[in-house]
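Fold this sequence, please.
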Amino acid sequence: MRYQNPVITGFYPDPSVCKYGDKYYLVTSSFQYFPGVPLFESEDLINWTQIGHVLTRKSQLPLEDASNSDGIYAPTIRVNNGRFYMVTTNIAKGNFYVWTDDIYGEWSDPVWVERDGIDPSLYFEDGKCYFMSNGTDAKGDSGVTQCEIDIETGKVLSEVVTVWHGTGGRFLESPHLYKFKDTYYLMAAEGGTEYGHMVVMAYSDNIYGPFTAVKNNPILTNRNLGGYELQGCGHGDLVEDNNGNIWMVHLGFRQIGKWLLYHNIGRETCLVPVTIAGDEVYAGYKGTTTLTIDTERLPDDLVQKKDPVTTFKNTRPGREWIYIRYPRDKKYLWQDDRVYLFGVKDKLDDDLAYPTFMGIRQKQLEGKMSVTIEKCGDNEAGVTLYMDNQHHMDIGVKKTLGGRKLFKHVSIGDLSVVTDEFDIPEEGEIRVDIVFEKLQYGFSATVGGKEYDLGKNQSRYLSTEVAGGFTGVLIGLYAQTEIDDSDTPAIFSDLKIEY
């Protein structure tokens, strides 16, 4: 069977996976967005369906102080005796986990663990639960740390010890512990989640080590593949299928060009086969991840499905659609094929704000979208390609004393400028069209049968290399007013996003 990487496209980084029955469940990071920790389900590891989010209540997800790329870091999902656990880091609050007995239902409130570091993971064995993270042990030694915890309360039950110092790469993180054929394997990431990212592994006969690095580290990296679109491969997790095959999900990102070191749609989820042979571990194609994978581990008649055209009817708020920090109550109304947004004073440019905004991930480097703005509310409404509050490109319409203006606004760091502006009729719908290309975005709008060309802008200005951080571009709808209690909504309809 031949499949394409990434298997989950767009801003879905730091994947973790577990298997329960005949199904697989996967979670990814979410940072400053609400709800938190996207949750996916699959029957074949290739086709994934988002079934919701893990953190859906403010009591689970305090984000008041979460600026760009703060909030929720790398989660791990595990299942033990039929109960699912998701453990993660809220970077401003610490490490915690939540649990559920119904993967389609609500998760518990957080159980906090008094341990430092990030990228926590859980390992269950013989009625005990072990907690790992990158951090510092009781003696002040740093590396991959491990201790036993009470899974009911989160209380640390044993001395915290450092079990591995890695292979020497910077930013040792993402530790996960497994057991295959009576041998413990400890997998981690090094090199930073950029172009030097890699997956490394060690093994031991004892759960507390000492762990010895496998002979062929790094077991996975694309760091030496110059002129290759898929880069930054690392931060993986392993799962065993019903046939005893081992697979790794891991993050990677696609550059906008073969030799152009920019990526704008975020770190994505990839899949590679893994073979464990004692003190050697083989992942992917000769230790790399390719965009196309040929494997005999999957049936030839398995079909990798393409994403359907995105509409308001086949997506949902709180599932595919997310919010910056929290959605303000009663500012969003979803009715079948229309969205009503009630503007507030907070703007897209504001840090630590709660603008009226809902976004969905850009999932491919090339595609197109259109949406109709039926009304712009009291003041301003539009469509934004949003990386963060300092890096976004917007097409908007706003009311003025003389009527309405159609405009394009570009924010790149300290530069915030309206690049195009047109007077348009005081009444009538505005259809907004955006074309995604690898190197640029093209913007236009149609009002009363007249098309307005709002020009093109380079996609690299919305890249991680320019903006920094750990997220990717969202296709967003927004509304702004001069007051917070507006009762006149902006109305959006007829959304189509095609790749």
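The CA atoms of residues 16 and 76 lie 5 Å apart. Residues 464-467 form the longest helix (4 residues).
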